[in-house]
Specification:
Strand content of chain A: 15-25%
Oligomer: homodimer
Mean pLDDT of chain A: 94
Number of strands of chain A: 11
Number of helices of chain A: 12
Chain lengths: 364, 364
């Protein structure tokens, strides 16, 4: 098994491989299609942690009983501007995509719409759904609660929230949509693991030791899995990150009547398929004036931000979404780079599932 | 003029003093009432920077031509679930209160409502409006753009956003509403000024020097007025704070067709009365299930968070709103402490305006 280097694959090939694996594991076609689309989109956008690298993890979740292969998501409650969906334990990308599209249809009629989902699972990158709505003309806010606790509230020494993502997208005119997608932790724990591999220290403010104090030791931080809320330390206002994580838990968990991360204590509760909740809010900018004036004004704002005098002339100021769109442009042209270790893992999964392995031909 | 110590005053007396001054300056009764209510509420909640301490600043804004004393806020556009208000250059608390109450009325009918305001001014504490909605049963998100640039986008060396506040409140059952109210900067510049008075250094990550690099010199930071976005430094993910500030500018500025802080270049543009925008989004938790289950679940979440094992047993983990409600309980009982320098300033303003000065009798 090679552990260094990577090879590049066309997105279409990755999508076919993802569909082959998910189908081989027994998921039905609609669920497979929604999940593969969202995973490969994350790969294209440079969000490697939320792309096909999730497939080995999802295989583990499947073994853990966290997915319902026979899931049939359905609308439980509905008004002209809102809906509550039961994900029925599906791969989260499916109910999340259904919820986004339902919110788009409602917002076309009413100007604004809120759709919540419970009984779901990990839905990949929150920004995928926000951008999907923005590309159809809507301002979108997306939140999700998360299965595994990670974020330690300021002053505490155990994790109470998952990394609780919040995404926000808005349609521009000349520019691609404004696209903001953040975990409410300071950094993803994956960056701590990477530092450990490289033998580097991490900045104080990324992770905590078992005593709840900041540590710069990535092995310690990876073992405790105690992530700080955005802000990092109390003196840099980590209480704001704690508040944002709680806001996401209220939107993606309490509103949706999902299983709340802070209350996920009993293993029986935790292992029940589909305890996760999501929240999708869409707004038509035409409610407040011609949609064109919104898009023009957002273009102007984006231009002004990019024109901010930079500290380093070689590093212009970026607007949310710029790094992801740059990655997409590059990867659509040159292919998505997958680490060789991931390619090997996917080969093993394909052999085990008895489905075709399609990633022999990657480019260096 | 005394510069140390403080005296305490009943909230009702502060409100009467605020009304006397604002009336004396020529503002009409409805505008005066809305502004005084919001200012004194901030004093009660311990948000001293957004209470009656604003009156001397508002006097300066008035001289600068930033308020329209004859303002008549009006609804410019409306649907069953949305409205756009023109604040017409009023003190921001008035159109913001009108917008909140209009959103409550709409959300009672439709389950969710979005109201934007343009042509407004500084509206005080964003949490005031979010809590007002939560106390009537709604989940509320409030955002505002801000006149004076303060936040430097990550990698830049000039400010592009104001401190762009974001507030979020939600109704609980046994507990008072969850109440989260943050500036999207790491800290308020007022804390930098306080450190300068005390001769203390500030943490790296609060403010920047003229070169855009972090400084621990509060005098330098106060002179540049270059605040960092939440996160503080690039290695602690200040790009997330930048994204949040931009999200607030889109909600409170672009949606509302307000004057955007990043575009506020020409002095003529900047001094036009009422270029500020606000945004109020309300959701009925009953859209997704019985409202009681929402409130019960939020109670449980609040209980679980407060029960988080603390680093220091003497400092329990706090939930958003806890410090403000504790301040309110104490100040309703003992009075609101005003620094003597502020009392002196208010005396000067009262004399100048020829209105009664009501703060002679404060308690030490």
């Amino acid at each position: 098994v090679s552990t260094a280097g990577f090879r590049r694959f066309p997105a279409a090939v990755l999508a076919e491989q993802a569909r082959a694996l998910l189908s081989g594991w027994g998921f039905p076609p609609e669920m497979v299609a929604a999940a593969a689309d969202a995973l490969v989109d994350a790969d294209l956008m440079g969000i490697d942690s939320h792309g096909t690298a999730l497939l080995p993890i999802y295989r583990q979740f499947l073994d853990d009983g966290r997915f319902n292969k026979a899931a049939a998501p359905r609308v439980e409650r509905e008004t002209p501007a809102s809906a509550l969906l039961d994900g029925d334990g599906a791969l989260g990308q499916w109910p999340a995509t259904l919820a986004t599209d339902l919110a788009v249809a409602k917002a076309r009629q009413t100007g604004l719409a809120a759709v919540a989902v419970h009984g779901s699972n990990h839905f990949g990158a929150a920004g995928f759904y926000a951008r999907r709505a923005a590309e159809q003309g809507f301002v979108a806010l997306v939140a999700s609660n998360v299965f595994s606790p990670a974020i330690v509230p300021t002053g505490g020494r155990i994790a109470r929230f998952g990394t609780n993502p919040l995404a926000f997208a808005a349609p521009a005119g000349r520019h691609r949509p404004f696209l903001f997608d953040m975990a409410t932790s300071t950094v993803a724990l994956g960056r701590v693991k990477k530092a450990a591999w490289r033998g580097e220290r991490v900045p104080f403010g990324w992770v905590l030791g078992p005593d709840g104090q900041p540590t710069d030791d990535p092995d310690l931080g990876w073992s405790t899995r105690l992530a700080t809320p955005l802000g990092g330390t109390p003196e840099l206002s980590s209480h704001k990150g704690t508040g944002l994580a709680a806001m996401v838990e209220i939107l993606g968990g309490v509103l949706a009547r999902a299983t709340l991360a802070p209350l996920r204590q009993a293993p029986s509760e935790g292992r029940r398929p589909g305890g996760i909740g999501h929240f999708f809010l869409l707004l038509d900018p035409g409610l407040f004036g011609p949609p064109e004036t919104f898009r023009d004004l957002l273009d102007e704002m984006i231009d002004a931000l990019r024109a901010t005098p930079p500290i380093d002339p070689a590093q212009p100021v970026l607007v949310a979404g710029d790094p992801e769109y740059a990655a997409r442009d590059e990867r659509e042209r040159a292919g998505v780079p997958l680490p060789n270790a991931l390619v090997d893992a996917l080969r093993g999964l394909a052999e085990e599932a008895g489905v075709p392995f399609l990633l022999e031909e990657g480019k260096q």
